[in-house]
Design brief:
This protein has 7 helices and 13 strands. By secondary structure, the chain is α/β, with parallel strands linked by helices. Helix 6 crosses helix 7. The two termini are 15 Å apart.
Amino acid sequence: MISQTQLTWYGQSAFKIITPTGNVLVIDPWLTNPKNANGKADLANLKRVDLILLTHGHSDHIGDSVEIAKTTGAKLVAGLDLATAMTTVLGFPSKQAEMNTTPLFGGEVKLLDGEVTVTLVPAFHGSGLGKDDESTPVYAGQPSGMIIALRDGPTFYHTGDTDLFSDMALVSRYNRIDIMMVCIGDHFTMGPKRAADAVRLVDPRMVIPMHYATFPVLSGTPEAFDRELKQRGVKAKMRVIEIGETVSL
């Protein structure tokens, strides 16, 4: 058993959370993204994963989910429509993507003997899913963010891919957010300015930038994000995690 929550970033929107009791969660696990030089080794070293959490159906978020599921037996936590697309189109094991772990917006699911509570919240983006870049995308439900509350640990808000929208302020009405992982890359999501306004609405204790620099069009930077936060007087501490780095919370 470990006493602290551990968080690892693999680049883009991919994170691993190890809970205080040692359960392992991965979020949008594209470990083998082009910015992670150790991606193949990181994937091979994932000997235990209990839950795979997916915000939406784009390939840079689904990433290595199917391989992880087949090698570890991890269960899928995602919107019901996305889970259906994952099993029927991509071959995610259907017994690991059943209704008890696949909610829809606003519904809480309590998992791993109640240690983890996940709530889907809206995100403004797309969510088409295909087998490869040449396939015609199929409907994969609405994109989401995720509130991940750990018993005896922090509460995370992973925004997924999204634009700024005013109802982000409602997230904190129901959950005090300790750590907000927020997309800042621009082009496909919020850039630093809008991301800073999103943080101001949510008012987390700590903010971790993600979804930047993986491709040239994702031009938002942590430095620009930090400037925007300071200009707005945001109190949240910004923590930049390097790819492959693990921090204890």
